[in-house]
Amino acid sequence: MSAFAPVEPTEGRLADTIAEQIEQQIVAGQLKAGDALPAERELARIMQVSRASLREALLRLVSRELLTVRRNAGYTVAAVTAPSLTDPLLRLMQTQPKAVADVLELRQGVETLAARFAAERATEADQGAIAEAIEQMEQAQQAGDAEAAATWDARLHLAVAEASHNVAVVTVMRGLFTVMREHVRRTRAAMLVNASGDQALRDQHRALVAAIRQQNPAAAEQAAEVHLRYVRQGVIAE
């Protein structure tokens, strides 16, 4: 988690300034969904503000659905799940083959852009998250755990999106995570019917991760394009 900074005095309300600092860290991806904020007393000390002003700011962010709060558990960065969008898509994917292809078209547009930005902007922490995701995905695949492999596959693509530090890309990908995980599960099942499909997906993911690590935007965008085109061809042929 990123370090919070003391709040500089402004002409406006102190609670607004506190809320803005926390919101900026969420938007920048420095605070991610599920991250717990420090305890209220500690956060007030770090930001050098009163607990009353801090509490007002935190509750304002809760009302805007950027944070969640639970008794005895403190404040946590909210996960953007958008069930009103994802639930209908999940139902369509279960009954309409075209919906699976349509989700892939959406992924292709968003993720190629995310890959380019990630290669330009990824921090060491981002690189670590991407490396962990691909390692866990490959281990799960080798162990024959298709469900875990699909989850880590989706997390890899989400980690790339978060490394883009583009709030629109991150919000879309976080909001569609449940749909993407189901989509990945289905497409992996179609791709992994033989050893060549397994190797192709492994090579494509490794090429994407390598391009981001090497800070090569063009190669990262190309790797994402090649991977998603391959998956799309498999879905169409299914």
Structure explained in plain terms:
The chain is mainly α and 238 residues long. Helices cover 73% and strands 3% of the residues. It has helices at 14-27, 40-47, 51-63, 83-95, 97-121, 124-142, 146-163, 167-175, 177-191, 195-213, 217-237; strands at residues 67-70, 74-77. A hairpin with a 3-residue loop joins strand 1 (67-70) and strand 2. The longest helix is centred in the middle third of the chain and has 25 residues, at 97-121. The N and C termini lie far apart (43 Å).
In whole angstroms, the N-to-C terminal distance is 43 Å
Radius of gyration, in Å, reads 20 Å
Q: Reading side by side through the largest sheet, how are the strands ordered?
A: 1-2
The residue-averaged pLDDT reads 84
**Percent of residues in helical segments?**
over 70%
Q: Largest sheet at a glance?
A: 2 strands, antiparallel
Shape: elongated
Oligomeric state of the chains present here: single chain
Question: Helix and strand succession?
Answer: HHHEEHHHHHHHH
Please report the number of helical segments. Answer: 11
Fraction of residues in β-strands: under 5%
Number of strands: 2
The stretches of 5 or more residues where confidence is low (pLDDT under 50) are: none
- Structural class of the secondary structure composition? mainly alpha
